[in-house]
From TrEMBL:
TPR repeats lie at residues 71-104. Keywords: Coiled coil, Repeat, TPR repeat. It comes from Momordica charantia. Transmembrane segments: none annotated. This is Tetratricopeptide repeat protein 4 homolog isoform X1. CDD domains: CTWD_Cns1-like (cd21377). InterPro entries: Csn1/TTC4_wheel (IPR044059), TPR-like_helical_dom_sf (IPR011990), TPR_rpt (IPR019734). Residues 200-267 form the Cns1/TTC4 wheel domain. It comes from the Eukaryota. GO terms for biological process: protein folding. The lineage of its organism: Eukaryota, Viridiplantae, Streptophyta, Embryophyta, Tracheophyta. One of its GO terms (cellular component) is cytosol.
């Protein structure tokens, strides 16, 4: 009997040939029946999709159908996997269907749809082009192609925005490094938000500056402090007679003559170029960029920059108001915590004595 023949061996008698033909016919009939059952399960709805996949799989495994018929089975299984959200499996099945029958328009459509769902836009576009060649009037494939073109356009715009943001951040870091400035980990981000310095067309840095009134821990901002500006110019404006007093300074103690500015000397570590760039990219289109290409040495923390105060010196350094912002920031002991932070104190208060003596520190 042909049933007992070894796989791959040739039938020797007419009887064996007849048996094999009969077996093949039975398998073919079973495969076609499984295909129809699968189609019926699809029509019955989502609860029966797994049964449909099982039927299509069993039909394929009969290995008796023609390439075009098997192509239909793979395309049908791709359709069910699409409905289930199994996009990778759907794409694999659609590709198998196309390999068996390159003109299977349903398989091409499902390959394009699965690729689109996997955000494989170039692959999806390629399938659409192939599909339209096979069927120039296929409305569904043209709809998918329109979606892909729109998404590719958006993607190109995002990529352009990312490149621009990275280029601007790298240019800004170069300006910071060229000036010998040191950037440390950002502090008071609940106050500073995503404020960052700006480099203008004349290669001049403009910093947002946070002012902290240490005694009451209230804050204020100088949104645009040009690096070439002297502190006195901004203080004269902030505490001029024409400006209203600070809302919490009911006794109007914080006058132009009575305030002093200080910055804190800590023992922080200067960030690497890569980490400074990542900080500058926060809130931009490139905030999650992973392809920053810099020299290996740029990724190393600048640990050789010790910003701690000299032994016996104060933790707080008084700002000379006649100096520019750049002059103060480039001091060897100045580490900029993201953006410049200066503490405003009233020299006639008891707090001032504690502050100067190092008996006060900002809340952690």
């Amino acid at each position: 009997m042909a049933l007992w023949m070894e796989e791959g061996s040739n039938p020797l008698t007419e009887s064996e040939k007849a048996d094999l033909d009969a077996i093949s016919a039975i398998k073919e009939s079973a495969a076609l029946e499984l295909k129809e059952k699968g189609n019926e399960f699809v029509r019955l709805g989502r609860k029966h999709y797994s049964d449909a996949i099982d039927c299509y799989t069993r039909a394929i495994n009969q290995k008796v159908l023609s390439n075009s018929e098997n192509s239909v089975l793979f395309a049908n299984r791709a359709h069910v996997n699409l409905l289930l959200g199994n996009y990778r499996r759907a794409l694999n099945d659609a590709e198998e269907a196309i390999n068996l029958c390159p003109t299977n328009i349903k398989a091409i459509y499902r390959a394009a749809k699965a690729s689109l769902s996997l955000n494989l836009l170039d692959e999806a576009k390629s399938y659409c082009v192939s599909g339209i060649k096979c069927d120039p009037n296929n409305v569904e494939i043209k709809k998918i192609e329109e979606q892909i073109d729109s998404l590719k356009s958006e993607q190109e715009q995002r990529e352009a925005q990312v490149r621009k943001a990275i280029a601007e951040a790298e240019k800004l870091v170069s300006a910071i490094v060229h000036r010998g400035l040191k950037i440390g980990k950002a502090t008071y981000q609940e106050l500073t938000g995503l404020r960052k310095p700006v480099l203008d067309k004349n290669n001049i840095l403009h910093w947002p500056v946070l002012l902290l009134y240490a005694e009451v821990m209230s804050s204020d901002f100088i949104e645009d402090f040009c690096e070439t500006d002297m502190f006195s110019a901004h203080l004269d404006m902030m505490f001029s007679e024409g400006c209203p007093p600070l809302p919490w300074d009911v006794e109007n103690k914080y006058t132009r003559e009575a305030v002093e500015l200080y910055y804190e000397v800590g023992s922080g570590i200067c960030l690497s170029k890569v980490n400074i760039i990542r900080h500058l990219l926060e809130g931009t289109a490139a905030s999650n960029a992973e392809n920053l290409v810099l020299d290996e040495k740029d990724a190393i923390e600048c640990s050789n920059h010790d910003t701690s105060a000299n032994e016996g010196s104060s933790k707080w350094i008084k700002v000379n108001e006649k100096r520019t912002l750049h002059d103060v920031l480039k001091a060897p002991n100045c580490l900029i915590p993201g953006i410049p932070v200066f503490y405003v104190v009233w020299r006639n208060s008891k707090f001032y004595k504690d502050f100067k003596a190092g008996r006060w520190g900002p809340p952690s």
